[in-house]
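Tutorial handout. Part one gives the primary structure; part two gives the three-dimensional structure as tokens.
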Amino acid sequence: MLMVPVSRAHAGDEFVGGLVGGLIGGAIGSGIANQQRQKTRTTRSRTVYVQPRATSAQRQTAREIQTSLNYFGFNAGAADGVLGGQSRAAISRYQGYMGYPATGQLTEYEKTMLLGAYHRALAGGAEVNQIIAKSNEGARAVLIAQRDGTTGTRTTGYAGLPLSVSQAVDEVADSSDPSAEQLLQRSGFIQLADLNGDGSTDYIIDTALAGSSFWCNASQCKTMVFASTSDGYRRNDLLLHAPKPDSFDCIGGTCQVKAAPAAQPEANTMMAKAEEPEAGATAGLTLPVFNTAPKQKSLSSHCSKVNLLTSANGGFTTVSDVSNPDFALSEQLCLTRTYAVARGEDIIASVQGASQAAIEQQCDAFGASMAGYIGSLNSKSPKAVLNEVSTLVLNSGMTPEQLRTTAQICMASGYQSDKMPAALGGALLLTALGERPYAELVGHHLHGGFGTDDNADMALAWYEVAISALDGGAAPVFAPSQAERIDVVRKAALGLAGHDMTTPVPAASTGTTMPVFTLSE
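Part two.
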């Protein structure tokens, strides 16, 4: 093994070093042991038939199939990328459950249906929760919904109610005995008022009147407030007892519970007389000072909406129908996020002696150590940023495989907990380690403004890094079975930056010098 000297400490070294002994040590040790077991063969005859060596893309697809089968309860064994006897038996059980011929060999349609349902279930959101809640099949209900093309949510509103409010009524009804129609007849369950003063009707749903403890704690119940905006209605979930229209302050689509009024002085309390203002001063003017921080956009919430629209549209945007570049790229962001989570979960499963909370805490520290690099995404070229991250690689004292494992674990943890520094930091580190297709994720974050400011031009530059790598023969890291996917990114990225979507994306030159490591087994 080529040893890398540590010349100076870096801001993230303490975290990285700690992770080697904890997360990384377990993951790598387990991986080496598995490799050694796989290399041991016992033959009972002189003739051993060895199947043709599968490509990395084929093995990745096989791992996705095995992971999906295991998720839905069809035990395929370890997700090792080899579809052996146990995997074929699991495929047969899946086929039988879905009403397909139980051959043990997936057709392209059956594979697409399985992987699509897995990604849909993994993305979660209100739609998936409703599908599962309405069925006794648990997560397998998502398979049926995927096969039958159902969404689990209504597509038209109850009479007089917007669709989003009607869907919320169904959501409450699913967790209580009264039907949606019965709830709508209960006085006070839905209250109408113009809460934000824009002249449109806003809606308040008091879940306490559903009679279900699902929505309530000892003193308060969830109140759903739908405030009108130019794009429809925005839902605000607030805790309150006995809500009334005057219980809320709403500005645009954002609502909050009004603060309790300040206590009034008692009648026998003497109040000091206010001094007269000096000449030229503004009498009675009080300027409050608020220390506010911008609220981080929720990628999880964004992807729930995107996945719902994708299902309603009958599937992902294809190259031939890229008419809305922004939405097409949002679909691809949510798809790549799902793959990143699935890959990280596989690694986390092999980590010994570390709880989910401990991993998240470690990855929070990792995200903080990557903050400087993330902060430069809007001001520096991909070449400059990757050169700086390469310094971290050189000075970490870790092998590339250890750093790669760290990045994949923290990227998954960040996406699961909606903490963008860890997720985006992982994508940057993997790109700097030479896995250029991960630059697509950086482009998506810059496009959507998740974890960084949105910047269409910079997003295009990072998309170019990933597209050029794939055009040059790099193995896909996201949805390798969907050959057309990167062409969708290519076309939509051009449209996003205002370019002609028929013009090829030029090859990018990152100019990054990456270290070459030789690892011993």
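Part three, for discussion. The first strand starts at residue 190 and ends at 193. The CA atoms of residues 106 and 235 lie 41 Å apart.
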